Amino acid sequence: MIVVKLQGGLGNQMFQYAIASILALENKSKLKVDNLFFENKEKSIGFTPRQFELSVFNNKYLVATQKEIKAFTNLSKFNQVRHNYGLNYPKVFVETYLGYHNTVLQLKSPIYLDGYFQSYHYFEGYESFVKDLFSFSTMNLDEKNKKILTEINNSETVSVHIRRGDYVNDKLTQQFHGNCSKEYYLEAIHRMEQKSKGLTYVFFSDDIDWVKEEYANLLVKKLFVDENKGSESWKDMFLMTYCSHNIIANSSFSWWGAWLNSFSEKTVIAPKKWFLNTDANEKTKDLIPESWLRI
Fold this sequence. Notes:
Elements: E1 2-5, H1 10-27, E2 31-34, H2 66-73, H3 77-84, E3 91-94, E4 111-114, H4 127-133, H5 143-153, E5 157-162, H6 166-169, H7 171-177, H8 182-195, E6 200-205, H9 208-214, E7 221-224, H10 234-242, E8 245-247, H11 252-259, E9 268-270, H12 278-281, E10 293-294
Parallel strand pairs: 1-2, 1-4, 3-4, 5-6, 5-8, 6-7, 8-9, 9-10
Helix pairs in contact: 1-11, 10-11
């Protein structure tokens, strides 16, 4: 059995579920999710309550019981003996640093995974498998989003994701993550304009009213997506995947919007400063694919 601890928002959950699914595939093993993280509903400094969001994809999710989780965290005498004799036993793998761990894909079931696993290297050779896991259905789109999708499909577009929320409003989160500056977005748009003219920039944000005001005078063709909030936020990611190109924030949400984009000629621009925390930022070479441009 593979059990993965889910935590964070949709983008983080996708990274965690993807690596666990790959391991379950390779081990021909059952996959279950540990959802206990989502039981904490209290906002505190440095912590934003989240919900299980993977239900937007058409996968069957088995939830691990506390007894099954305890089998990994508190070894039975039988499994302690197996451990002592070098035999296979229920193991816990805790990600100890950000970045790619080249031993993860060699892990053998039964295993409990605890980490974020944010690296495109984990998906190398499994791209089609992961994209199938996270396949959106247009059947779940409302009429307004279907209209936006039609606009996106009928022109050359650039998704622009501006992440604010707890990156701005929570002191500890701000100190660790930081948020992308307006200068970053203006430079990214300038780079896009050098590559192609007549682009339409599709803005997405968890604070779209602020974005509308801040970028109102930007002299490019603009479209602001302002309907998808709360449990409907996944629709923003869906629409990002259909844009011709992507300008992403320092956010796993728009990372997935760009990575799932199947347009063969896409240009993806990502920030060099993914984390405000210097030590953490140095590890992001494993997060951003080499074909993407970092500025």
